[in-house]
């Protein structure tokens, strides 16, 4: 299974390389292509291939795929984002070492952001964050309803360098009484350096904190991406290796983050 997941990640990279050969035409489009609060309908396909975990057998692995849909409301003052995870967990059998894979839908998350600052050079929003216990397998979800907040910012005062971050917190308030409660937070800094013609360097690691279990992961990421406009659709393809510099508990040690983001202009 690990081999096939790696091939899938590499296929995304190869598709990206074909578009890397094309010339981008608009620097402003490249800048806004990485804005999570852009006033455009967006559909993103993300994949985290995790071949190595800390405090776990070397055969253990994870593969987390996300389908994310974002829709601006009220002329961009509000933004709704819904994220559905499709997860694979590889757990070695302690008796014979055979790796047993569990596949299925994880817990679906949604947040609504009110953009109280909405300019071409800076966008800042905050709003409620909700996760539903939709996992099809026990190992793929928490079994709990979770609620909290999300705050996101994107600063694009420079045509060369843009940065921002997404901060979320949520805790369980209902669900399966036999499952442990949750109290988690995530900080996702992101930074983009435009190289010209739609090509850019990037980083968007997620620093995850599990307060209930005293576990955390603080990775750093550096990758490359390419933005290409095809008619009224902006394609943003990227690959980003990430390595955890600080961690406690069973967390990703190394992961390969790949993705294809689509923005539908004028929608």
From TrEMBL:
Protein origin, superkingdom: Bacteria
Keywords: Signal
Cleavable signal peptide: 1-21
Name of this protein: Neuromedin U
Organism whose genome encodes this protein: Echinicola soli
């Amino acid at each position: 299974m690990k081999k096939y997941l790696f091939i899938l990640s590499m296929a995304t990279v190869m598709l990206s390389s074909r578009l890397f050969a094309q010339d981008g035409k608009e620097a402003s489009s490249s800048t806004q292509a990485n804005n999570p609060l852009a006033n455009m309908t967006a559909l993103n396909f993300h994949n985290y291939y995790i071949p190595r975990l800390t405090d776990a057998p070397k055969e253990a692995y994870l593969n987390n795929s996300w389908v994310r849909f974002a829709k601006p409301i009220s002329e961009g003052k509000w933004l709704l984002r819904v994220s559905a995870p499709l997860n694979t967990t590889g757990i070695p059998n302690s008796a014979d070492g055979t790796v047993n894979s569990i596949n299925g839908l994880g817990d679906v998350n949604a947040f609504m952001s009110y953009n109280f600052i909405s300019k071409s050079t800076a966008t800042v929003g905050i709003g409620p964050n909700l996760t539903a216990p939709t996992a099809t397998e026990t190992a793929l979800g928490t079994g709990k309803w979770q609620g909290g907040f999300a705050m996101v910012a994107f600063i694009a005062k420079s045509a060369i360098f843009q940065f921002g971050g997404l901060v979320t917190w949520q805790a369980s308030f209902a669900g399966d009484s036999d499952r442990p409660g949750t109290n988690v937070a995530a900080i996702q800094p992101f930074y983009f350096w435009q190289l010209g013609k739609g090509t850019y360097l990037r980083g968007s690691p997620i620093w995850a904190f599990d307060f209930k279990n005293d576990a955390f992961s603080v990775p750093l990421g550096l990758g490359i991406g390419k933005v290409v406009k095809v008619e009224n659709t902006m394609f943003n393809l990227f690959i980003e290796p990430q390595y955890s510099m600080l961690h406690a508990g069973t967390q990703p040690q190394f992961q390969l983050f790949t993705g294809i983001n689509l923005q539908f202009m004028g929608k």
